[in-house]
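Re: weekly structure request thread

Next one in the queue (145 aa):
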Amino acid sequence: MEYIYYQEIPKTDVLIGIMELHKHVFEGAELRLEELTQKKNLLIFVAIDSDRVVGFKIGYEFNDHMFYSWLGGVHSDYRGKGIASELMRRQHEKVKSLGYPKVRTISRNKRREMLLLNIKFGFDVIETFHSEKGSHKIVLEKVLS
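Done, posted below.
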């Protein structure tokens, strides 16, 4: 397994692989390139197995003091192998080195594996809310020490 990070939108097959994997992980939802281009200080981590993107973790600057861990996922064929944990560990290490003292994410009960991974990695639940679409969201933050 190879892990690579980008501080910009990756070119070539990596971007296509991320978009295809996003569709797989999020029940057909498309990740639009425009969404990526609008993010300040974008940071993308990928896990690659034999030229295939099998995991990704995307985040961006929320403000001067916080990084937002936005999207992530691992292909169902590769789950349970520690890939999500390794992507998160690498993201937090890099974010801390860039000077962000905190990282924030938003999860849902529907995605329990990710919610539990966030808690395992030291995130605290700070609030909950209902989105415009009516789904219950859980806001989590972690101090990077």
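The radius of gyration is 14 Å. The chain has a mean pLDDT of 94.
Next request, please.
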